[in-house]
Amino acid sequence: MTSSSAAPATRDFDGRVALITGASRGIGKAIAAELLTRGAHVAITARKPAPLAEAAADLRALGHGGTVLELPGNAGDPDARAEAVRRAVDELGGLHVLVNNTGINPTFGSLMDADLDAVRKIFDVNVVAALGYVQQAHRAWMAEHGGTIVNVASVAGLRSTGVIGAYGASKAALIRLTEELAWELGPTVRVNAIAPGIVKTQFAAALVAAGEDAAAAGYPMKRLGTPEDVAQLVAFLASDAAQWITGETVRVDGGLLATGSM
């Protein structure tokens, strides 16, 4: 894989350390690649060790010089979160950027038929684990040194979908959590969120079952997003170019919500 910005104008993350969760594929992996191209050292986490090791090898092969530290562990496990943050700080020398990208959606359809255990798991991973990572990052580094946090939400957190209600509700909670954290952690820590539309990843495969062209027809840009589209926005929000932006949720949805429909 390659980043869409093969020759960035500046290495604006030189010397900085970023921890990206859910980074064995898709959006998380693209974010790690983008930050590497800009000079960062990256720590990547995911639940399954083998795909994470493969992603780490791909990232190292990009040849941008930054260290890639793979940290297998379940985002829903408090001990795994603490260990990931500890190792990032100890082995890479700090934690300037945290990207909460891990997300799950094991249930589709009516909320009236939803398995409540599945709903609890969605909120635990998509919201509680994100807060847990922020707490750990703040205690280990950001309280003293400052930093930036980007939470990966979804347009489903901004508008009802009718088919992924529990997931959407969890992302709405993550958006509100972003605002609360921005207020609480400022001025030294900035906290923002992004809200992607459908991005061409394995995670979104069920949403494009009828075909990519059909799924993209309702987008003003007439295409679905790519992981690189999202990664470049994350890098901007985590960079000094966005130093007066906090508490925001920025849509990266090809204009979908501008149409008034989902």
What global shape is seen? globular
Mean pLDDT: 93
Number of strands: 7
Q: Give a short account of the largest sheet.
A: 7 strands, parallel
Order of helices and strands: EHEHEHEHEHEHHE
Q: What's the helical proportion of residues?
A: 40-55%
Q: Termini distance?
A: 30 Å
What is the helix tally?
7
What's the CATH topology label?
Answer: Rossmann fold
Give the low-confidence spans: 1-7
What fraction strand?
5-15%
Q: How is the quaternary structure best described?
A: single chain
CATH secondary-structure class? Alpha Beta
Task: Please compute the radius of gyration using only Cα atoms.
Answer: 17 Å
Family: Belongs to the short-chain dehydrogenases/reductases (SDR) family.
InterPro entries: KR_dom (IPR057326), NAD(P)-bd_dom_sf (IPR036291), Sc_DH/Rdtase_CS (IPR020904), SDR_fam (IPR002347)
Domain Ketoreductase: 16-197
Protein name: SDR family oxidoreductase
